Amino acid sequence: MIVATTEAIAGHRTVETLGQVFGVVVRSRGLGGNIVAGLRSLRGGEIKEYSALVEDTRRHAIDRLVANATAMGADAVVMMRFDSGELGQTMSEVVAYGTAVRIAPLAGPAA
């Protein structure tokens, strides 16, 4: 599965647009993680506990996006984007979304 943030995939052409596809994940740090992160925020700088949470959540959202696109019969997702927000003060929501498509290689020497 090719996932691209662009409208077109180099060396390929879109042969069918299947529609909108997304992957949603909501996660929360445990109480211990929130306490450690809160203490780190007092001195400033990167809060590694939250950086790891967001990174893992984005990866999980992409995995769900790919699973949903595969279920639709797609071989690629174009125009992939992330949206994120907070639910309450302890939960992070990440949505990966894009357009599920079927692609074919370009023919000829320009490919």
Write a compact overview of the structure shown.
By secondary structure, the chain is an alpha+beta fold. The protein contains 2 helices and 4 strands, in the order ββααββ.
What would you note in describing this structure?
With 111 residues, the chain is of the alpha+beta class. It has a single domain (2-105), classed as 2-Layer Sandwich (Translation Initiation Factor IF3). It has 2 helices and 4 strands. It has a 4-stranded mixed β-sheet with strand order 1-3-4-2. The longest helix is centred in the middle third of the chain and has 24 residues, at 48-71. The protein is elongated, with a radius of gyration of 18 Å. The mean pLDDT is 87.
For the sheet with most strands, the description reads: 4 strands, mixed
Mean pLDDT, nearest integer?
A: 87
Low-confidence stretches: none
CATH classification class:
Alpha Beta
Shape: elongated
What strand line-up does the widest sheet have? 1-3-4-2
Core attributes:
alpha+beta; four-stranded mixed β-sheet; Translation Initiation Factor IF3; 111 residues
Topology, element by element:
Blueprint: E1 2-3, E2 12-28, H1 31-43, H2 48-71, E3 76-87, E4 91-105
Parallel strand pairs: 1-3
Antiparallel strand pairs: 2-4, 3-4
